[in-house]
Structure formats: structure tokens, C-alpha cells
Amino acid sequence: MKISLLLLLLTVLLSPSCVSQHFSSVSKKIENTCVKEKGKWTGQMFHDLWIKLYNDGKLDFLNKGFDTLYLLESYDVESGSYLGTIWNGKGTLNYSYNRGTFKVEPQHPFTAYTIQLIEKWDTVTLRNEERINAVKLPERNISGVRVIKQGTKMSIDCIGFKEFFRLDRDR
């Protein structure tokens, strides 16, 4: 009885750190898969921001696990601001980050249409929209990620594209 109680207590105490450890490894795998060249970049990497958000309790909806996780991220060179949306079937976080400060945003920093295309993983339409409706000034690059977990296997898909906008559809 004492042993089973001790095991239960250890499981409860260690499970948050296991989830954190798990998310940290998923985040690092995303970075390793999607960031081809870090080059001379001295700013924050999105992996660093995701871990900060997770450790601050902003990504608690991931604690219950996920089948599919989506991320949209962008960096504005002029302002030094990072914009992001992280979501799955259990929750969403929209955020901005500038000079060491996070702001949780009530609205998506990306259009509903962009989010819909990422959820469908319609890369052909994304490329077509980018070609036809890319915002010229200020030009902003967006990174989209889809993580699918099936048991112990995980697949990570990445796409980078220019922000696009069409007034009649995206207001």
C-alpha cells in the first residue's frame, strides 16, 4: 500500500516535468526540421519563445497531448517583433513578442484564410496566393508548421511563404 501510494505521488509530481520535457523535445524537433540556416542570426529563435510561453503556462492546452499541432510565425525586421499563433483542437494562443515582453493577443495576427489553408495543409493554394496576392510593402515572411502525432511517431511539415492579402476576402 505504501509503495503504490509513493508511486502515485511520484507520478503526479513528475508528470508536469515529463510533459514539459516532451514539449521541449517537440519544439526542438520543429526547429531542427524547419530552420535550415541559422546563419549569423543573434535574435531569439522561435523555439526559445515557445519554451518561454510553455514555462509561463500560456500553452497549458498542450498538457493533454495533441494529435495535430499548428504554428504560424513571423518576424518583423523593422520593429523587431515576433508574431505567432499556436493551436490545436484544444486551444489557441496568439502572441507578440518584442524586447523581452510577451503580449497575448485576442485576435489572430494572420488572416482566417491563411489559418484555414494551414489546417488543410493546402500548400498549392498557399503558393498560388503568395504569387498573386503577396503584400508588397511591408513584405513579411510567414512560417507555417504542422505536427502530426500518431502513437510514438511524429511527422513535421514546414512551409515558408510571403504574407498575402485580398481585401474582399481577408478583412
- Determine the N-to-C terminus distance: 62 Å
Number of beta strands:
6
Mean residue pLDDT? 83
Shape: globular
Major sheet strand order: 4-3-2-1-5-6
Q: Sheet with the most strands?
A: 6 strands, antiparallel
- Helix coverage percent of residues? 25-40%
The H/E string reads HHEEEEHHEEH
The total domain count is 1
Return residue spans where pLDDT drops below 50 for at least 5 consecutive residues: 1-21
Oligomer: single chain
The Cα radius of gyration reads 18 Å
Beta-strand percentage range: 25-35%
Helix count from the secondary structure assignment: 5
| Helical/strand content category | alpha+beta
Outline of the structure:
The chain has 5 helices and 6 strands.
Describe the structure in your own words.
The chain has 171 residues and is an alpha+beta fold. It has one domain (2-35, 45-170). It is 39% helix and 29% strand. It has helices at 2-34, 46-55, 112-120, 123-133, 167-170; strands spanning 68-76, 81-88, 91-98, 101-104, 141-150, 153-162. Strands 4-3-2-1-5-6 form a six-stranded antiparallel sheet, with helices on both faces. Residues 1-21 have low confidence and may be disordered.
Core attributes:
single chain, 171 residues, 29% strand
Describe the secondary-structure layout.
Layout: H1 2-34, H2 46-55, E1 68-76, E2 81-88, E3 91-98, E4 101-104, H3 112-120, H4 123-133, E5 141-150, E6 153-162, H5 167-170
Antiparallel strand pairs: 1-2, 1-5, 2-3, 3-4, 5-6
